[in-house]
Design goal:
The complex is a heterodimer of chains A (302) and B (256). Chain A is an alpha/beta fold. Helix content of chain A is 31%, strand content 20%. In chain B, helix 6 links the parallel strand 12 and strand 13. Classes of the chains: A alpha/beta (302), B alpha/beta (256). The complex binds flavin-adenine dinucleotide, flavin mononucleotide (FMN) and FE2/S2 (inorganic) cluster (FES).
């Protein structure tokens, strides 16, 4: 049986990658299981300078989902490279570094630094709803997506993944823009804009008022977007949004994903990265699928 | 820290809206590093909610762990209704807990409401200290754990309305007793306004003190950064994780 997948020339032992911001830099979950069971780890968003993120409370719960407003709290790229990369590179799994910034120059600076490390891929986060970059995130207008992809790509030694926001007019336009800008792969979706209100106090639950919705409840939205983007671009897609179990992985791959990421599920099931690869193999047996890649883009619509 | 599969051994409403929940685990808990003030991240029955819920550990033995839980919303409500034998996963022991030095001989435990719960196991973690406990509750229907504390420490209980014990706030009784007790350290847990007053008392009197804070959590283990609170070290402000850097902080370092 084969669970190996290939994303832009990078080989993954299985299609399961932990999603940015939900897995820190791997240390905490390494207390629970051997992280070499994972196809890869995508780090928390790393910026040029150290950031403290948004004021608390930063999380609210909703039906089958959560809304977060962490922002980009991280130690800055220099501390990341010095303190976190040596740990990450010993884990026996692929490392994807998620990078973010306020200006194109910031992104390029971070990409330069990450390029010098042993990271396998770089994921460009232009879709974080929790930071304000001159009022408008880079991930909204297709022209801006293409421009920043083109610039950052010049600074990446590793293949570049562009992570797309679902909070846009037409995600296929942004996907094409990223492809035109030179993206080697796409990942989608980031969180959906949302908010939560305490009706008793008539106050927002998040100090930031707005946050990003993730978890099982977003899966149908993510599936649709993965499918639409798959029909539009010819670079590999990493699908995510609400994945909890092996069946979800199969659905994302059928919609067109080459690999997937798991985010919110880690919070309530800390061992998911250990059990999911096994569950996936069992599901493949049940489906009589010899090679996981056989599932990719096989949606039947007639 | 580890994720244990447990079953509900007993759940008894010991008081108005307060549940004493004991879980049993076949696999022995790792007690070696347990310290009073640490917490557990507990699954909620029937998929009532996605996220787990953090609760201070009240008592822990090799195969059982006990919590005191106040009814708040859907998650705690479903714990009140959990039947004996219900399977629940629980991650423990989390957070730093209260750390006492050899030189901390006279220890004040200052708790209000549910804040009493995480203070109690401190006396088991550090048995050879002299303890002075001040507990405050809204009224007699909310009073809990008095007997447990009384067997291990000199205990003053008060209620806001005087319907049980002394009338007034535990912070006032502590203030009045400070000269006599001369504590080396004060350990604090309770609602936010109470902790602000307690923090002030400790700082104004130059007494070393730690408090256990709360924040909404995601992972509970330090990975997601949703539980951050503001702390100050060497004059510089930082965000710290309540779940991993706390929940216990030095009163001089936490911004309440
Ligand atoms: C370290 C720590 C120790 C705690 N120890 C105890 C204890 O020993 N006994 C006890 O009764 N309670 C304790 N709490 C508070 C307890 O976690 C909340 O009352 C509980 O999560 C409420 O859940 P709910 O679904 O009933 O309420 P809801 O209000 O419906 O919960 C909605 C969301 O907000 C979160 N939330 C709500 N209130 C709090 C709070 N005060 N702190 C953190 N998250 C909150 C919930 O976890 C959930 O994610 C502790 C909290 C922390 C952080
Ligand atoms: C607490 C939290 C923090 C996140 N931080 C980041 C981040 O730093 N960079 C990023 O690209 N995405 C971030 N995300 C988005 C996730 O990587 C993912 O796109 C989203 O949660 C959807 O997947 P899920 O439903 O499996 O969680 C974060 C999500 C959560 C819940
Ligand atoms: S709850 Fe995730 S870091 Fe504290």
């Amino acid at each position: 049986m084969n669970t190996k997948v290939n994303i832009a020339g990078v080989k993954f032992k299985n299609p399961i990658i932990t999603a940015s911001g939900t897995f820190g830099f791997g240390r905490e979950y390494a207390n629970f299981y051997d992280l070499s069971s994972l196809g890869g780890i995508c780090t928390k968003g790393v910026t040029r300078e150290r950031r403290e993120g948004n004021p608390p409370p930063r999380i609210a719960e909703t039906t089958k989902g959560i809304i977060n407003s962490v922002g980009l709290q991280n130690p800055g790229v220099d501390a990341f490279v010095r303190n976190e990369m040596p740990f990450l590179e010993k884990l026996g799994t692929n490392i994807i570094v998620n990078i973010a910034g306020n200006t194109v120059e910031d992104y390029c600076y971070v990409a330069d630094k990450v390029s010098e490390t042993s990271a396998h891929m770089i994921e460009l986060n232009i879709s974080c709803p929790n930071v304000k970059a001159g009022g408008m995130a880079f991930g909204i207008e297709p022209t801006a997506v293409e421009a920043i992809t083109k610039e950052v790509k010049k600074h990446c030694r590793q293949p570049l993944i562009v992570k797309l926001s679902p909070n846009v007019a037409d995600i296929t336009k942004n996907a094409l823009a990223a492809q035109n800008g030179g993206a080697d792969a796409l990942s989608l979706i980031n969180t959906l804009g949302g908010m939560a209100i305490d009706y008793r106090t008539r106050r927002p639950i998040l100090k930031n008022v707005f946050g990003g919705l993730s978890g099982a409840c977003v899966k149908p939205v993510a599936l649709k977007m993965v499918y639409q983007v798959y029909k539009t671009v010819n670079i590999p897609i990493i699908g995510l949004g609400g994945i909890e179990k092996a069946e979800d992985i199969a659905e994302f791959m059928i919609a067109g994903a080459s690999a997937i990421q798991i985010g919110t599920v880690n919070f309530y099931n800390p061992l998911i990265g250990k059990t999911l690869p096994i569950d996936l193999e069992n599901l493949m047996k049940e489906l009589k699928v010899e090679d996981i890649n056989e599932l990719k883009g096989t949606l039947i619509t007639d | 820290m580890k994720d244990y599969l447990t079953t509900v051994k007993s759940n008894e409403e010991i008081n108005d809206g307060i549940l004493k929940l004991t879980l049993e685990s076949k696999e022995p808990f790792d007690l070696g590093s347990f310290r009073g003030g640490q917490f557990a991240h507990l699954e909620v029955p029937d998929g009532a909610s996605l996220l787990r819920r953090p609760f201070g550990i009240y008592e822990i033995t090799e195969h059982t762990v006990t919590f005191l839980i106040a009814k708040k919303g859907a998650g705690t409500d479903s714990l009140f209704k959990a039947k004996i034998g219900t399977e629940l996963k629980v991650i423990l022991s989390l957070g730093n807990g209260f750390k006492l030095e050899e030189s901390d001989k006279r220890v004040v435990l200052l708790g209000a409401g549910m804040g009493a719960a995480p203070l109690y196991p401190v006396m088991s973690t550090y048995p050879n200290k002299e303890y002075f406990t001040f507990l405050g509750f809204r009224d007699k229907t909310k009073v809990m754990c008095v007997e447990d504390f009384s067997t291990k420490s000199k205990t003053v209980v008060c209620t806001d309305d005087g319907s049980y014990g002394n009338k007034g706030f535990p912070t006032d009784y502590l203030k009045a007793g400070l000269d006599e007790i001369k504590p080396d350290v004060i350990l604090i847990c309770g609602p936010h306004p109470f902790m602000k007053i307690a923090q002030r008392i400790a700082i104004d009197n130059g007494i070393k003190a730690y408090l256990s804070t709360e924040q909404r959590m995601g992972c509970g283990i330090g990975a997601c950064l949703v539980c951050s609170c503001k702390t100050v070290k060497n004059g510089e402000e930082h965000m710290s994780r309540v779940c991993a850097d706390g929940p216990v902080f030095d009163v001089k370092e936490i911004v309440l």
